[in-house]
Amino acid sequence: MSPRPGALKRLLPPAGAQVARGLQTCLPGARRSWGATGGTDGAPYCYEVFLKHLTLSVQAGMAGVPASVAEIGPGDSIGIGLAALLAGADRYAGLDVVPYSLAAHNRRILDELAGYFSERRPNPPWGWPRYDHLLDARSFPSRILRDESLARSLAPARLDRIRAALEGGASEPIRIEYHCPWASAAAIEPETVDWLYSHSVMEHVDGIEAAYSAMSRWLRPGGFVSHQIDLRSHELFPEWNGHWGVSRLTWRLIRGRRAYLINRLPYSAHARAIRRFFEVRLELLLEEEGGLPAGRLRAPFDRLDDRERRTSGYFVVAVKR
Ligand SMILES: C[S@@+](CC[C@H](N)C(=O)[O-])C[C@H]1O[C@@H](n2cnc3c(N)ncnc32)[C@H](O)[C@@H]1O
Questions:
Q1: What is the four-CA torsion angle of 208, 44, 79, 217, rounded to 10 degrees?
Q2: β-strands 311-320, 278-287: how paired?
Q3: Which residue range is the domain that position 104 belongs to?
């Protein structure tokens, strides 16, 4: 009798179950990506993530909502970019490797977000990092998103142009682009972007140097990047740092041929790569208790220093020189 699906995984220790999943992705015709990522499929999440990146970028020196915005890895919708357009940007370019956003309810999310901005919906920050200090008493960033500018950006005729851009119609000056899969820096013209952000993406990117280099090429001099990077094991293991406790060979088997997984890099690898192209203006580290003890980490993670080993989240804002 052949085992029921999933029975093998339940019998194996955590790394074994992940190896089995990785190996499955090498079979002919196997799925190499997930059906959805969770997150940007809801307007409240897109609103929160947009407000977080905007407020912390302004704290780091960005002058309000820039005209041209790009995003790496929008996921289930381009809702964070739609929030940027509603707040005043004219151009949005999303770059992904799996076309999750094509099936998304972008139109519904746009209408919900337009309602949130119109009512200045209070948004007490969720999770890390906090940005309460940049909000007013009603938990809205009214010093950045002023009434006069929101009156312009949410004018009915402008909303119609954003809707038309979403449907691929004539919409100048509003432009929405979606590049998927993006394969090289040629996806976007050089020096045309003012602000590029990513949220829970750079920990998935293979070849971060090439990606940060492409971002620097797309940005105008003085343009900003903001990235929130989740360095945890993404529930592949029970421990938040379990991905640092398997050997290189085991990791290759776990990785299999999935479209992407996690790159296992510690915050310091991102910090170094970013500094090659940008000047860092704000850097926040989230430290985590517990997890695998230092003695159980495998090479090359057995050489992490105390701070690298404890850091489970990294938020960075930087400017192109
Ligand atoms: C965990 S999801 C995050 C989605 C969204 N940013 C959010 O906050 O919900 C990771 C996203 O990164 C994308 N991704 C992975 N590797 C990428 C790469 N090299 N370039 C662009 N996007 C990538 C995935 O396709 C997916 O959309």
A1: -30
A2: antiparallel
A3: 39-247+262-320
Task: Reply yes or no: is the peptide bond before residue 173 cis, omega within 30 of 0.
Answer: yes
CATH of the domain at 129: 3.40.50.150
User: How many residues are recorded in the chain?
Assistant: 321
Pocket of ligand 1 (CB under 6 A): 37, 39-40, 49, 72-75, 95-98, 100, 199-201, 204-205, 260
> 221 preceded by cis ω (within 30°)?
no
Q: For 194-215, what is each residue's pLDDT tens digit?
A: 999 999 999 999 999 999 999 9
pLDDT for 170: 82
- Please calculate the CA angle 139-195-107 and round it to the nearest 5 degrees: 65
Q: How far is the CA of 74 from the centre of ligand 1 (A)?
A: 6
Q: Is residue 220 part of a domain?
A: yes
Q: How many CA atoms lie within 13 A of 241 on its CB side?
A: 26
State the average pLDDT over residues 48-59: 98
**Count of CA atoms in the C-beta half-sphere (13 A) of 280:** 16
Choose one of 48, 82, 204 to mutate for the ligand 1 pocket test, by most ligand atoms within 8 angstroms of C-beta.
Answer: 204
pLDDT at 1 over 70: no
